[in-house]
Amino acid sequence: MKSQAIRGMNDVLPEEAATWRFLLDAVRDLVEAYGYREIQLPIVEYTELFRRSIGDTTDIVEKEMYTFLDRNGESLTLRPEATASMVRAGITNGLLHNQRQKLWTSGPMFRYEKPQQGRYRQFHQIDVEALGFAGPDVDAELIILSARMWRRLGIDRLSLEINSLGDPDSRARYRSELVKYFSAVKKELDEDSMRRLEKNPLRILDSKNPAMQDVVAGAPVMLDFLDEASALHFSQLKGLLDAAEVAYTVNPRLVRGLDYYNRTVFEWVTDALGSQGAVCSGGRYDGLVEKLGGKPTPAIGWAMGVERLVALHAVCGGDVKPPAPDVYVVTVGQAAEQAGFELSEQLRDAIPGARFEQNLGGGSFKSQLKRADKSGAGYALILGEEEVSNATVGLKPLRKKEDQTPVARADLVKVLAERLSDSA
Ligand code: ATP
Ligand code: MG
Fold it and tell me: What is the rounded average pLDDT for all residues in the chain?
Protein backbone atom coordinates (compact mmCIF):
# COMPACT_ATOMS: atom_id res chain seq x y z
CA MET A 1 0.00 0.00 0.00
CA LYS A 2 1.53 3.31 -1.09
CA SER A 3 0.77 6.12 1.34
CA GLN A 4 1.29 8.68 -1.33
CA ALA A 5 -0.93 11.15 -3.08
CA ILE A 6 -1.10 10.85 -6.87
CA ARG A 7 1.44 13.05 -8.65
CA GLY A 8 -0.10 16.42 -9.48
CA MET A 9 -2.95 15.99 -7.00
CA ASN A 10 -2.64 18.00 -3.82
CA ASP A 11 -3.91 18.01 -0.29
CA VAL A 12 -4.97 21.47 0.79
CA LEU A 13 -3.91 21.67 4.44
CA PRO A 14 -5.85 23.69 7.02
CA GLU A 15 -3.56 26.75 6.86
CA GLU A 16 -4.13 27.01 3.12
CA ALA A 17 -7.74 25.88 3.19
CA ALA A 18 -8.58 29.06 5.10
CA THR A 19 -7.31 31.12 2.17
CA TRP A 20 -9.25 28.96 -0.29
CA ARG A 21 -12.43 29.51 1.63
CA PHE A 22 -11.87 33.23 1.93
CA LEU A 23 -11.29 33.56 -1.81
CA LEU A 24 -14.18 31.31 -2.82
CA ASP A 25 -16.55 33.17 -0.50
CA ALA A 26 -15.44 36.51 -1.91
CA VAL A 27 -15.82 35.40 -5.52
CA ARG A 28 -19.18 33.79 -4.82
CA ASP A 29 -20.50 36.94 -3.14
CA LEU A 30 -19.36 39.02 -6.07
CA VAL A 31 -20.74 36.88 -8.91
CA GLU A 32 -24.04 36.45 -7.08
CA ALA A 33 -24.21 40.22 -6.68
CA TYR A 34 -24.09 40.41 -10.49
CA GLY A 35 -27.00 37.96 -10.75
CA TYR A 36 -25.20 34.68 -11.45
CA ARG A 37 -26.75 31.66 -9.73
CA GLU A 38 -24.98 28.54 -8.54
CA ILE A 39 -25.31 25.24 -10.36
CA GLN A 40 -23.59 22.03 -9.26
CA LEU A 41 -22.44 19.57 -11.88
CA PRO A 42 -21.13 15.99 -11.87
CA ILE A 43 -17.39 15.44 -11.99
CA VAL A 44 -17.77 12.58 -14.48
CA GLU A 45 -19.42 12.82 -17.91
CA TYR A 46 -19.56 10.73 -21.07
CA THR A 47 -16.24 11.05 -22.87
CA GLU A 48 -18.07 12.01 -26.04
CA LEU A 49 -19.20 15.29 -24.45
CA PHE A 50 -15.63 16.54 -24.16
CA ARG A 51 -14.50 15.18 -27.53
CA ARG A 52 -17.30 17.01 -29.29
CA SER A 53 -17.01 20.29 -27.39
CA ILE A 54 -13.34 20.84 -26.58
CA GLY A 55 -12.24 19.34 -29.90
CA ASP A 56 -10.50 16.14 -30.99
CA THR A 57 -7.21 17.80 -31.85
CA THR A 58 -6.74 19.87 -28.71
CA ASP A 59 -4.08 18.95 -26.15
CA ILE A 60 -6.79 18.28 -23.62
CA VAL A 61 -8.62 15.67 -25.67
CA GLU A 62 -5.56 14.23 -27.38
CA LYS A 63 -3.49 13.56 -24.32
CA GLU A 64 -4.77 14.96 -21.06
CA MET A 65 -8.08 13.33 -20.24
CA TYR A 66 -8.64 10.82 -17.46
CA THR A 67 -10.82 8.42 -19.42
CA PHE A 68 -11.98 4.98 -18.31
CA LEU A 69 -14.63 2.38 -18.98
CA ASP A 70 -17.19 1.90 -16.26
CA ARG A 71 -18.53 -1.54 -15.34
CA ASN A 72 -21.08 -1.25 -18.08
CA GLY A 73 -18.42 -0.62 -20.73
CA GLU A 74 -19.31 3.07 -21.17
CA SER A 75 -16.45 5.46 -21.79
CA LEU A 76 -16.45 8.12 -19.05
CA THR A 77 -14.08 11.00 -18.37
CA LEU A 78 -13.21 13.05 -15.30
CA ARG A 79 -14.11 16.55 -16.43
CA PRO A 80 -11.12 18.59 -17.64
CA GLU A 81 -13.18 21.80 -17.55
CA ALA A 82 -16.72 22.87 -16.72
CA THR A 83 -18.17 24.68 -19.73
CA ALA A 84 -19.08 21.50 -21.60
CA SER A 85 -20.90 20.13 -18.54
CA MET A 86 -22.61 23.47 -18.01
CA VAL A 87 -23.98 23.44 -21.55
CA ARG A 88 -24.91 19.77 -21.28
CA ALA A 89 -26.80 20.50 -18.04
CA GLY A 90 -28.55 23.45 -19.68
CA ILE A 91 -29.77 21.20 -22.47
CA THR A 92 -30.60 18.17 -20.31
CA ASN A 93 -32.65 20.21 -17.87
CA GLY A 94 -34.39 22.42 -20.42
CA LEU A 95 -32.80 25.53 -18.90
CA LEU A 96 -32.27 27.11 -22.30
CA HIS A 97 -35.80 26.92 -23.73
CA ASN A 98 -36.73 30.56 -24.29
CA GLN A 99 -34.69 31.43 -21.25
CA ARG A 100 -31.37 32.99 -20.56
CA GLN A 101 -29.15 31.73 -17.77
CA LYS A 102 -26.41 33.32 -15.76
CA LEU A 103 -24.71 30.51 -13.86
CA TRP A 104 -21.60 29.79 -11.86
CA THR A 105 -20.04 26.65 -10.47
CA SER A 106 -16.79 25.55 -8.87
CA GLY A 107 -14.88 22.39 -8.17
CA PRO A 108 -12.07 20.07 -9.22
CA MET A 109 -10.98 19.53 -12.85
CA PHE A 110 -8.62 16.84 -14.10
CA ARG A 111 -5.94 16.99 -16.79
CA TYR A 112 -3.01 14.65 -17.26
CA GLU A 113 -0.44 17.41 -17.64
CA LYS A 114 3.18 17.62 -16.56
CA PRO A 115 2.89 18.67 -12.91
CA GLN A 116 4.85 21.77 -11.96
CA GLN A 117 4.34 24.96 -10.00
CA GLY A 118 0.85 26.22 -10.88
CA ARG A 119 0.06 23.25 -13.14
CA TYR A 120 -1.53 20.20 -11.57
CA ARG A 121 -3.46 17.10 -12.57
CA GLN A 122 -6.29 17.82 -10.19
CA PHE A 123 -6.88 21.54 -10.04
CA HIS A 124 -9.86 23.71 -9.23
CA GLN A 125 -11.82 26.27 -11.15
CA ILE A 126 -14.53 28.79 -10.56
CA ASP A 127 -16.62 29.04 -13.72
CA VAL A 128 -19.00 31.81 -14.59
CA GLU A 129 -21.15 31.43 -17.71
CA ALA A 130 -23.91 33.45 -19.40
CA LEU A 131 -26.04 31.41 -21.81
CA GLY A 132 -28.48 33.04 -24.22
CA PHE A 133 -26.69 36.41 -24.41
CA ALA A 134 -25.28 37.63 -27.72
CA GLY A 135 -23.18 40.48 -26.30
CA PRO A 136 -21.04 42.50 -26.48
CA ASP A 137 -22.58 43.95 -23.29
CA VAL A 138 -22.36 40.64 -21.43
CA ASP A 139 -18.78 40.14 -22.67
CA ALA A 140 -17.95 43.47 -21.08
CA GLU A 141 -19.87 42.67 -17.91
CA LEU A 142 -18.01 39.42 -17.36
CA ILE A 143 -14.68 41.17 -17.78
CA ILE A 144 -15.64 44.19 -15.65
CA LEU A 145 -16.86 41.81 -12.95
CA SER A 146 -13.49 40.06 -12.92
CA ALA A 147 -11.68 43.41 -12.74
CA ARG A 148 -13.78 44.27 -9.68
CA MET A 149 -12.88 40.91 -8.19
CA TRP A 150 -9.13 41.70 -8.34
CA ARG A 151 -9.76 45.06 -6.67
CA ARG A 152 -11.76 43.43 -3.88
CA LEU A 153 -9.11 40.81 -3.30
CA GLY A 154 -6.26 43.31 -3.32
CA ILE A 155 -4.67 41.63 -6.35
CA ASP A 156 -2.92 44.03 -8.67
CA ARG A 157 -0.31 42.11 -10.63
CA LEU A 158 -2.65 41.11 -13.46
CA SER A 159 -3.17 42.43 -16.93
CA LEU A 160 -5.95 41.77 -19.37
CA GLU A 161 -5.45 40.46 -22.90
CA ILE A 162 -8.30 40.30 -25.37
CA ASN A 163 -8.75 39.11 -28.92
CA SER A 164 -11.48 38.19 -31.37
CA LEU A 165 -11.57 34.88 -33.21
CA GLY A 166 -14.32 36.01 -35.58
CA ASP A 167 -17.08 33.81 -36.98
CA PRO A 168 -16.54 30.34 -38.45
CA ASP A 169 -16.22 31.63 -42.04
CA SER A 170 -13.64 34.28 -41.30
CA ARG A 171 -11.82 31.75 -39.17
CA ALA A 172 -11.75 29.31 -42.12
CA ARG A 173 -10.19 32.01 -44.32
CA TYR A 174 -7.64 32.74 -41.64
CA ARG A 175 -6.95 29.05 -41.21
CA SER A 176 -5.94 28.62 -44.83
CA GLU A 177 -3.63 31.65 -44.60
CA LEU A 178 -2.04 30.13 -41.52
CA VAL A 179 -1.51 26.80 -43.27
CA LYS A 180 0.19 28.64 -46.14
CA TYR A 181 2.44 30.54 -43.73
CA PHE A 182 3.44 27.60 -41.56
CA SER A 183 3.92 25.27 -44.55
CA ALA A 184 6.49 27.72 -45.89
CA VAL A 185 8.47 27.56 -42.62
CA LYS A 186 8.00 23.85 -41.97
CA LYS A 187 11.65 23.33 -41.06
CA GLU A 188 11.19 25.45 -37.97
CA LEU A 189 8.12 23.67 -36.62
CA ASP A 190 8.37 21.27 -33.71
CA GLU A 191 6.74 17.85 -33.73
CA ASP A 192 3.48 19.00 -32.11
CA SER A 193 3.13 21.88 -34.52
CA MET A 194 3.80 19.64 -37.53
CA ARG A 195 0.94 17.45 -36.44
CA ARG A 196 -1.30 20.45 -35.84
CA LEU A 197 -0.51 21.93 -39.23
CA GLU A 198 -2.77 19.38 -40.86
CA LYS A 199 -5.48 19.06 -38.26
CA ASN A 200 -5.70 22.28 -36.31
CA PRO A 201 -3.24 24.99 -37.38
CA LEU A 202 -4.67 27.62 -34.99
CA ARG A 203 -3.41 25.51 -32.14
CA ILE A 204 0.18 26.20 -33.27
CA LEU A 205 -0.31 29.77 -32.04
CA ASP A 206 -0.97 28.39 -28.58
CA SER A 207 2.37 26.53 -28.48
CA LYS A 208 4.15 26.77 -25.14
CA ASN A 209 7.49 25.80 -26.73
CA PRO A 210 9.92 28.77 -26.43
CA ALA A 211 11.71 27.60 -29.59
CA MET A 212 8.49 28.18 -31.53
CA GLN A 213 7.91 31.75 -30.40
CA ASP A 214 9.67 33.47 -33.33
CA VAL A 215 7.81 31.51 -35.99
CA VAL A 216 4.55 32.15 -34.20
CA ALA A 217 5.31 35.86 -33.91
CA GLY A 218 5.62 36.14 -37.70
CA ALA A 219 2.29 34.45 -38.44
CA PRO A 220 -0.66 36.36 -39.91
CA VAL A 221 -3.15 37.52 -37.28
CA MET A 222 -6.85 36.75 -37.02
CA LEU A 223 -7.81 40.39 -36.52
CA ASP A 224 -6.92 41.08 -40.17
CA PHE A 225 -9.47 38.48 -41.26
CA LEU A 226 -12.42 39.37 -39.04
CA ASP A 227 -15.89 39.46 -40.60
CA GLU A 228 -17.72 42.74 -40.32
CA ALA A 229 -20.13 41.71 -37.55
CA SER A 230 -17.33 40.30 -35.39
CA ALA A 231 -15.23 43.39 -35.97
CA LEU A 232 -18.14 45.55 -34.81
CA HIS A 233 -18.73 43.30 -31.78
CA PHE A 234 -15.05 43.61 -30.88
CA SER A 235 -14.95 47.37 -31.21
CA GLN A 236 -18.12 47.72 -29.12
CA LEU A 237 -16.57 45.52 -26.44
CA LYS A 238 -13.47 47.70 -26.41
CA GLY A 239 -15.67 50.78 -26.12
CA LEU A 240 -17.46 49.34 -23.09
CA LEU A 241 -14.17 48.42 -21.43
CA ASP A 242 -12.78 51.89 -22.12
CA ALA A 243 -15.88 53.48 -20.60
CA ALA A 244 -15.49 51.29 -17.51
CA GLU A 245 -11.79 52.18 -17.35
CA VAL A 246 -10.71 48.57 -17.52
CA ALA A 247 -7.30 48.54 -19.19
CA TYR A 248 -6.50 45.84 -21.75
CA THR A 249 -4.04 44.84 -24.43
CA VAL A 250 -5.20 43.40 -27.72
CA ASN A 251 -3.17 40.22 -28.19
CA PRO A 252 -3.87 39.01 -31.73
CA ARG A 253 -2.23 35.66 -30.97
CA LEU A 254 -4.48 34.74 -28.10
CA VAL A 255 -6.40 31.68 -29.32
CA ARG A 256 -7.11 29.66 -26.15
CA GLY A 257 -6.67 25.92 -25.75
CA LEU A 258 -10.21 24.81 -26.58
CA ASP A 259 -11.80 24.70 -30.01
CA TYR A 260 -15.28 25.95 -29.18
CA TYR A 261 -14.48 29.63 -28.91
CA ASN A 262 -15.51 32.32 -31.41
CA ARG A 263 -15.40 36.12 -31.34
CA THR A 264 -14.34 37.40 -27.90
CA VAL A 265 -11.56 35.60 -26.05
CA PHE A 266 -9.66 37.01 -23.09
CA GLU A 267 -7.16 36.11 -20.43
CA TRP A 268 -6.01 37.73 -17.20
CA VAL A 269 -2.29 37.06 -17.01
CA THR A 270 0.39 37.71 -14.42
CA ASP A 271 4.18 37.71 -14.46
CA ALA A 272 4.22 36.90 -10.74
CA LEU A 273 3.78 33.13 -11.00
CA GLY A 274 6.58 32.08 -13.34
CA SER A 275 5.51 30.50 -16.59
CA GLN A 276 1.99 29.58 -15.39
CA GLY A 277 0.73 33.08 -16.07
CA ALA A 278 -2.95 32.59 -16.96
CA VAL A 279 -5.15 33.07 -13.92
CA CYS A 280 -8.58 33.62 -15.44
CA SER A 281 -9.49 32.84 -19.03
CA GLY A 282 -12.63 32.90 -21.06
CA GLY A 283 -14.42 33.52 -24.27
CA ARG A 284 -17.53 33.34 -26.35
CA TYR A 285 -18.83 29.98 -27.60
CA ASP A 286 -21.87 30.79 -29.71
CA GLY A 287 -21.91 27.46 -31.55
CA LEU A 288 -21.51 25.06 -28.65
CA VAL A 289 -25.07 24.66 -27.43
CA GLU A 290 -26.25 23.73 -30.94
CA LYS A 291 -23.28 21.44 -31.46
CA LEU A 292 -24.24 19.54 -28.31
CA GLY A 293 -27.84 19.12 -29.44
CA GLY A 294 -29.59 22.28 -28.19
CA LYS A 295 -31.10 25.18 -30.11
CA PRO A 296 -28.65 27.83 -31.34
CA THR A 297 -27.79 29.83 -28.21
CA PRO A 298 -25.05 32.45 -27.94
CA ALA A 299 -22.97 32.14 -24.79
CA ILE A 300 -19.83 33.31 -23.05
CA GLY A 301 -17.97 32.51 -19.85
CA TRP A 302 -14.73 32.44 -17.97
CA ALA A 303 -12.88 30.03 -15.74
CA MET A 304 -10.47 30.93 -12.99
CA GLY A 305 -7.76 28.62 -11.69
CA VAL A 306 -8.13 28.56 -7.91
CA GLU A 307 -4.58 27.29 -7.20
CA ARG A 308 -3.14 30.15 -9.24
CA LEU A 309 -5.50 32.62 -7.58
CA VAL A 310 -4.38 31.41 -4.14
CA ALA A 311 -0.72 31.75 -5.12
CA LEU A 312 -1.21 35.22 -6.58
CA HIS A 313 -3.18 36.37 -3.55
CA ALA A 314 -0.20 35.42 -1.37
CA VAL A 315 2.29 37.16 -3.71
CA CYS A 316 0.16 40.31 -3.44
CA GLY A 317 0.41 40.21 0.35
CA GLY A 318 -2.79 38.32 1.20
CA ASP A 319 -2.65 36.44 4.48
CA VAL A 320 -5.66 34.53 5.80
CA LYS A 321 -5.44 32.51 9.02
CA PRO A 322 -7.69 29.57 9.86
CA PRO A 323 -10.13 30.60 12.59
CA ALA A 324 -8.94 29.95 16.16
CA PRO A 325 -11.37 29.11 18.97
CA ASP A 326 -12.58 32.04 21.05
CA VAL A 327 -12.55 30.03 24.23
CA TYR A 328 -10.73 26.86 25.28
CA VAL A 329 -12.44 25.03 28.15
CA VAL A 330 -9.99 23.50 30.64
CA THR A 331 -11.35 20.91 33.06
CA VAL A 332 -9.34 19.25 35.81
CA GLY A 333 -10.79 16.27 37.67
CA GLN A 334 -13.69 13.99 36.88
CA ALA A 335 -16.46 16.16 38.28
CA ALA A 336 -15.09 19.17 36.44
CA GLU A 337 -14.84 17.24 33.15
CA GLN A 338 -18.50 16.35 33.34
CA ALA A 339 -19.49 19.87 34.34
CA GLY A 340 -17.24 21.36 31.62
CA PHE A 341 -18.96 19.35 28.93
CA GLU A 342 -22.34 20.64 30.03
CA LEU A 343 -21.03 24.17 30.36
CA SER A 344 -19.61 24.21 26.82
CA GLU A 345 -22.92 23.08 25.38
CA GLN A 346 -24.80 25.74 27.37
CA LEU A 347 -22.41 28.42 26.16
CA ARG A 348 -22.77 27.27 22.54
CA ASP A 349 -26.52 27.73 22.95
CA ALA A 350 -26.19 31.08 24.67
CA ILE A 351 -23.54 32.68 22.41
CA PRO A 352 -24.11 31.05 19.01
CA GLY A 353 -21.47 33.00 17.06
CA ALA A 354 -18.62 32.06 19.39
CA ARG A 355 -16.22 29.14 18.99
CA PHE A 356 -15.73 26.95 22.08
CA GLU A 357 -13.14 24.20 22.11
CA GLN A 358 -13.57 21.66 24.87
CA ASN A 359 -10.41 20.03 26.21
CA LEU A 360 -10.54 16.35 25.27
CA GLY A 361 -8.61 13.44 26.70
CA GLY A 362 -7.90 14.86 30.17
CA GLY A 363 -4.38 15.96 31.12
CA SER A 364 -2.86 18.01 33.91
CA PHE A 365 -3.83 21.65 34.41
CA LYS A 366 -0.49 22.70 32.96
CA SER A 367 -0.73 20.58 29.83
CA GLN A 368 -4.31 21.69 29.21
CA LEU A 369 -3.28 25.33 29.46
CA LYS A 370 -0.52 24.62 26.96
CA ARG A 371 -3.07 23.19 24.55
CA ALA A 372 -5.30 26.19 25.17
CA ASP A 373 -2.46 28.51 24.28
CA LYS A 374 -1.51 26.52 21.19
CA SER A 375 -5.09 26.54 19.96
CA GLY A 376 -4.87 30.28 19.52
CA ALA A 377 -7.93 30.86 21.73
CA GLY A 378 -8.40 34.30 23.22
CA TYR A 379 -9.56 32.94 26.58
CA ALA A 380 -9.39 29.84 28.73
CA LEU A 381 -12.31 28.93 30.93
CA ILE A 382 -11.04 26.94 33.87
CA LEU A 383 -13.05 24.43 35.86
CA GLY A 384 -11.47 22.55 38.75
CA GLU A 385 -13.03 20.86 41.77
CA GLU A 386 -13.14 24.13 43.65
CA GLU A 387 -14.95 25.96 40.84
CA VAL A 388 -17.45 23.15 40.53
CA SER A 389 -18.25 23.16 44.23
CA ASN A 390 -18.68 26.94 44.51
CA ALA A 391 -20.40 27.41 41.12
CA THR A 392 -17.75 29.66 39.58
CA VAL A 393 -15.49 29.44 36.52
CA GLY A 394 -12.00 30.82 36.15
CA LEU A 395 -11.68 33.23 33.20
CA LYS A 396 -8.14 33.67 31.91
CA PRO A 397 -7.19 35.91 28.99
CA LEU A 398 -4.54 34.14 26.95
CA ARG A 399 -3.45 36.93 24.60
CA LYS A 400 -2.71 39.63 27.16
CA LYS A 401 -1.04 39.76 30.54
CA GLU A 402 -3.98 39.57 32.88
CA ASP A 403 -4.66 37.27 35.81
CA GLN A 404 -7.32 34.64 35.98
CA THR A 405 -10.51 35.99 37.57
CA PRO A 406 -13.32 33.96 39.11
CA VAL A 407 -16.73 34.53 37.52
CA ALA A 408 -19.99 33.29 39.08
CA ARG A 409 -21.70 30.74 36.84
CA ALA A 410 -24.82 32.89 36.90
CA ASP A 411 -22.90 35.84 35.37
CA LEU A 412 -20.76 33.87 32.96
CA VAL A 413 -22.77 34.29 29.75
CA LYS A 414 -23.01 38.03 30.22
CA VAL A 415 -19.35 38.51 31.13
CA LEU A 416 -18.10 36.27 28.37
CA ALA A 417 -20.34 37.76 25.69
CA GLU A 418 -19.04 41.21 26.61
CA ARG A 419 -15.42 40.13 26.55
CA LEU A 420 -15.84 38.42 23.18
CA SER A 421 -17.59 41.35 21.58
CA ASP A 422 -14.85 43.67 22.88
CA SER A 423 -12.14 41.56 21.29
CA ALA A 424 -14.06 41.04 18.03
P1 ATP B 1 -2.71 27.20 -19.58
O2 ATP B 1 -2.48 28.06 -20.76
O3 ATP B 1 -1.98 27.68 -18.35
O4 ATP B 1 -2.52 25.74 -19.85
P5 ATP B 1 -5.47 26.87 -20.20
O6 ATP B 1 -5.62 27.78 -21.35
O7 ATP B 1 -5.29 25.42 -20.45
O8 ATP B 1 -4.28 27.39 -19.25
P9 ATP B 1 -8.23 26.93 -19.36
O10 ATP B 1 -8.52 25.62 -19.91
O11 ATP B 1 -8.80 28.12 -20.02
O12 ATP B 1 -6.65 27.12 -19.18
O13 ATP B 1 -8.61 26.99 -17.82
C14 ATP B 1 -8.90 28.20 -17.13
C15 ATP B 1 -7.94 28.45 -16.00
O16 ATP B 1 -7.71 27.26 -15.25
C17 ATP B 1 -6.55 28.88 -16.44
O18 ATP B 1 -6.51 30.25 -16.67
C19 ATP B 1 -5.70 28.48 -15.26
O20 ATP B 1 -5.76 29.48 -14.25
C21 ATP B 1 -6.39 27.24 -14.74
N22 ATP B 1 -5.71 26.01 -15.16
C23 ATP B 1 -5.76 25.39 -16.35
N24 ATP B 1 -5.04 24.24 -16.33
C25 ATP B 1 -4.53 24.14 -15.09
C26 ATP B 1 -3.71 23.17 -14.41
N27 ATP B 1 -3.29 22.06 -15.03
N28 ATP B 1 -3.37 23.39 -13.12
C29 ATP B 1 -3.79 24.50 -12.46
N30 ATP B 1 -4.57 25.44 -13.04
C31 ATP B 1 -4.94 25.27 -14.32
MG1 MG C 1 -3.63 24.25 -20.75
Answer: 94
